[in-house]
Amino acid sequence: MARYLPVNMLRYILMGINVFVMISGIVLLGVGIWISKYRPVVEMIGTSAGVGVAVAGAFIFFVSFCGFYGAKSLNRFMLTMYQIVLFVFSLVTLACGAVLIKFSNSVTSVIHDNCSTDVEMAKYNAAAKGAHAYLDECVHDSYTPSAIKTIYDCPDYQTSEWYGNGYADFDAFLENNFNCAGFCSANVHYTFRDRNEDVTTSCAAKLADTINTTATQAGKAFVALGVILLVLLIFSCCLCMHPQRDLYKEGLYNAGHHSTSHLATHDHHHGARH
């Protein structure tokens, strides 16, 4: 069996990796079914997300099973199907990774430019500045300015134009989650959270930095996944085209056939003896 060592190594590597991926596919399938049945999640995002996760899990299981069975039995048809899917998905993931990395490099300038020209971003910026000015006026007119720490402490806030304003609500969300104040340009202090806390940056800059970091990490993950898929594709191709493949497969068949024949002969002699 030493002469079949390269074939064995390729087989066991592909079989081991695909067993792990099959288990992952089963887990995804179960999670998808759970999401589609769990009422709070369904009410929040609907059943489509759960169905999508379940379908993705089933597809991953099917592809990895083709790779596992093809490697185990040296089945050229299964290995070819496996290679086609790996080739397509490796190209898609590498392309997605490149697009995300390129996008992450330009997101800061895009948001900065849109702050000057985009109507929606200008409205968010106007809301941040307007609500901030309203808070300053509220503090100035109050008999106890120290009691006014956020815009929600202003007595007339619920009747102001900023109450329930979608743009101001989004600014409040950014302040609370990204520790920023103001949209395109930073305010002196917070508007929707404790105004005594220090402010370091505008929300647009913080948002751009978060998107930049997330897109870069996602892009690198996609590139890494694409490289792994390409390595598996190379292993599969090497196994499929290995010069010892047919000999090894024939050897497996002959070994199994010989064992069966030997058992049949042994049973025949044993029966004749009795």
- Structure summary, number of beta strands: 0
Q: How large, in whole angstroms, is the Cα Rg?
A: 31 Å
Instruction: Please mark out the parts with pLDDT under 50 across 5 or more consecutive residues, or reply none.
Output: 1-5, 255-274
Strand share of the residues? Answer: under 5%
Oligomer: single chain
Helix content: over 70%
Q: Helix/strand-derived class?
A: mainly alpha
* Average pLDDT rating: 81
N→C terminal distance: 38 Å
SSE run: HHHHHHHH
**Quick one: overall form?**
elongated
Number of helices: 8
How many strands, which pairing sense, and closed or not: the largest β-sheet?
none
How would you describe what is shown here?
By secondary structure, this protein is mainly α. About 75% of the residues lie in helices and about 0% in strands. Helix 1 crosses helix 7. Mean pLDDT is about 80; it is low at about 1-5 and about 255-274.
SSE inventory with pairings:
Elements: H1 5-37, H2 39-45, H3 48-73, H4 76-117, H5 119-141, H6 166-178, H7 203-241, H8 245-273
Helix pairs in contact: 1-3, 1-7, 3-4, 4-5, 4-7, 5-6
